[in-house]
Amino acid sequence: MKREEIEECVSEVLEANTYEKVNENLYLTKYQKQVLEEYHIPFQECQNSKELLFLLSDIIDDEEYDELENVAREIAEYDYYNS
């Protein structure tokens, strides 16, 4: 790989994993928002990460969604360390 390709790849990963403010009490990465949108999860309506995690727990219990479970785990970890 050339240096430019590596830098571009790193830049894309950083951009996808940078937290953005959804509302006053909720921050998500672009990747997390993309996954939630793919599954039609109304994350914009949630007031905080605990509310979003509660919503996700109902969905994850009903079906097996590996990608959604990973996002829920990331959100729970962020909430734990930033609350």
Secondary structure layout:
Blueprint: H1 3-16, E1 19-23, E2 26-29, H2 30-38, H3 49-62, H4 66-82
What would you say about this model in short?
The chain is mainly alpha-helical and 83 residues long.
How would you portray this structure in words?
By secondary structure, the protein is mainly α. 65% of the residues lie in helices and 11% in strands. It has helices at residues 3-16, 30-38, 49-62, 66-82, and strands spanning 19-23, 26-29. A hairpin with a 2-residue loop joins strand 1 (19-23) and strand 2 (26-29). The chain is globular and about 45 Å long. The mean pLDDT is 90.
Helix segment tally? 4
Principal-axes geometry comes out as globular
Task: Output the strand order for the largest sheet.
Answer: 1-2
Q: What is the helix fraction of residues, given as a range?
A: 55-70%
Helix and strand content put the structural class at mainly alpha
Series of secondary-structure elements, N-terminal to C-terminal? HEEHHH
Number of DSSP strand runs: 2
